[in-house]
Design brief:
With about 475 residues, this protein is mainly alpha-helical. It has helices at about 1-35, 40, 45-50, 65-75, 80-90, 95-105, 110-120, 135-140, 145-180, 190-205, 210-235, 240-255, 255-260, 265-280, 285-290, 300-325, 335-350, 350-380, 385-405, 410-450, 475-480, and strands at about 125, 130. The protein has one domain. The longest helix is centred in the C-terminal third of the chain and has 41 residues, at about 410-450.
């Protein structure tokens, strides 16, 4: 197993460094230029859109822009922000943080494009909307086979692989606290944790999209605020070290010594990989949540999801980076998973370890819910049979239990592989469809300049086919009559 993991890790390094990162960076720079830096230019509109009320239609149970954001944030803001960032620093050095920031700003353009497209090409499923990359691959590109491929890969990546990672994190965090309190981790703790997780998650996911969205809306702000307060306390106690930490981050990212030692490549690779695992921009996951929102214009939810990238990378990930780096950590392959815990303990004392355990539980639990919904949306794309969704839910819960009691090292490595495949398939779709997203953006900004609250109907995009929703008002009244 160790040799398999080593071979898979080597394959991942080559795949990311020589294919995924160049493709992602090139496309995001192109999107940034073509959109006039939409990810920064329309920042005020992002805050305006996230608090808007849902744009309801007869016979539809609307999901608000914030609830849709909360579903994606539930999956985004998870162990990648704590364990993943620490691992990036352990393997790539402090410079990995700099490249995480750079890519967080640049990949916002990809997040805007993919989530705007998900809104445009969403479909009605009873009283809710569904959509995502699989849907815009079929309806926008006319390539159902591509949508089928993506649907299978995202189910494996999020609902199976990432699900087991998050379940293992919950079990591991409780085990660490138990060991600190009692001197040893009870053998029964992992299976009991797994069983409790199955019950709690089962109650929520069998309640449908609205129960998932409501739970995410309640828990996501709580866990972000708790973690930010903990991080700000660490920074306040180490204010004198902050300038040195910033200098180390920048120097390690672009320094002459790092270039000579080929360390910059590792820093870039780790920064982008862990950043993408965390913020998911360009990956094709967040659009599944974005499509559920009821908004008056597709661009509005594209902007909301772009804001999510900034909250994830520039706020939450940065807090982890400063927590770790002010403690002058030891770098190395085995340091990553425990880095944040040890750093907190050295700054605040043993009590902080248990607070971090509680935060990890919230982060991982909400991530499990977000990961589940991504799978559900794509199961609906693969088949409309109700028994298939029931079977998927059962398998999802079984994997959550197994993840709680198993080893996660190979799973983390496998997550890198499946995430790379997901990204490549999604980027191959949004590249040719980006022109449609930019037409929508121009329509949105033109209405804003006229002092209007932008509204969209599909007749405003002549020549674009495959749009199932967004009917003109008269047509919508006829459909609902």
């Amino acid at each position: 197993m160790e040799s398999f993991n080593g071979a898979l890790a080597a394959f991942n390094n080559g795949l990311w460094l020589y294919l995924v990162i160049p493709v992602l960076a090139a496309l995001c720079l192109w999107f940034t230029v073509r959109s006039g830096v939409v990810q920064l230019r329309l920042l005020p509109d992002m805050f305006r859109s996230i608090v808007e009320k849902p744009d309801g239609t007869p016979g539809h149970r609307p999901v608000s822009p914030f609830k849709a954001f909360a579903i994606s944030a539930a999956a985004r803001i998870g162990t990648g922000n704590i364990v993943g960032v620490a691992t990036a620093i352990a393997l790539g050095g402090p410079g990995a943080v700099f490249w995480m920031w750079v890519m967080g700003l640049v990949v916002g353009s990809a997040s805007f494009v993919e989530s705007t497209l998900a809104q445009l090409y969403k479909v009605r499923d009873g009283k809710i909307f569904r959509g995502g990359p699989a849907y815009y691959m079929e309806r926008g590109l006319g390539k159902r086979w591509m949508g089928l491929l993506f649907a299978v890969v995202i189910i494996v990546t999020f609902s199976f692989v990432f699900n087991s990672v998050q379940a293992n994190t919950i079990s591991g965090a409780l085990g660490t606290s138990a060991e600190q309190l009692f001197g040893a981790t009870p053998s029964w703790l992992a299976p009991v944790t797994g069983a409790a997780l199955v019950v709690l998650v089962g109650v929520i996911i069998f309640g449908g999209l609205h129960r998932i969205a409501s739970t995410a809306q309640m828990l996501v702000p709580l866990m972000v605020v708790l973690y930010m307060l903990l991080g700000l306390l660490v920074i306040a106690l180490n204010l004198d070290k902050v300038p040195d930490v910033l200098g180390t981050i920048v120097g390690s990212a672009v320094g002459v010594r790092e270039f000579a030692a080929a360390g910059v490549g590792t820093a870039i690779s780790q920064g982008v990989r862990r950043g993408m695992f965390s913020n998911e921009a360009g990956l094709g996951s967040a659009p599944n949540a974005a499509a559920t929102a009821s908004v008056s214009h597709p661009v509005k939810q594209g902007l909301v999801q772009t804001l999510g990238v900034y909250i994830d990378t520039l706020l939450v990930c940065s807090v982890t980076a400063f927590i770790v780096l002010v403690s002058a950590p030891t770098y190395g392959e085995n340091a990553g998973p425990t880095m944040t815990q040890e750093a907190l303990q050295s700054s605040l004392g043993t009590w902080s370890l248990h607070v971090l355990t509680a935060i990890l539980l919230l982060l991982a639990f909400t991530s499990v819910l977000g990961n589940y919904y991504y799978g559900e949306a794509n199961i609906a794309f693969l088949t409309r049979r109700p028994e298939a969704l029931t079977a998927f839910r059962v398998v999802f819960l079984v994997i959550a239990f197994l993840g709680s009691i198993g080893s996660v090292q190979v799973v983390w490595t496998l997550a890198d592989t499946t995430m790379a495949v997901m990204a490549l398939v999604n980027l191959a779709a949004i590249a040719p469809l980006s022109g449609v997203a930019f037409r929508l953006m121009r329509d949105y900004t033109a209405q804003r300049k006229q002092g209007l609250d932008p509204r969209f109907t599909r007749d405003r995009l002549p020549g674009v086919t495959g749009i199932a929703c967004w009917e003109p008002e008269r047509e919508r009244e006829r459909v609902n009559a």
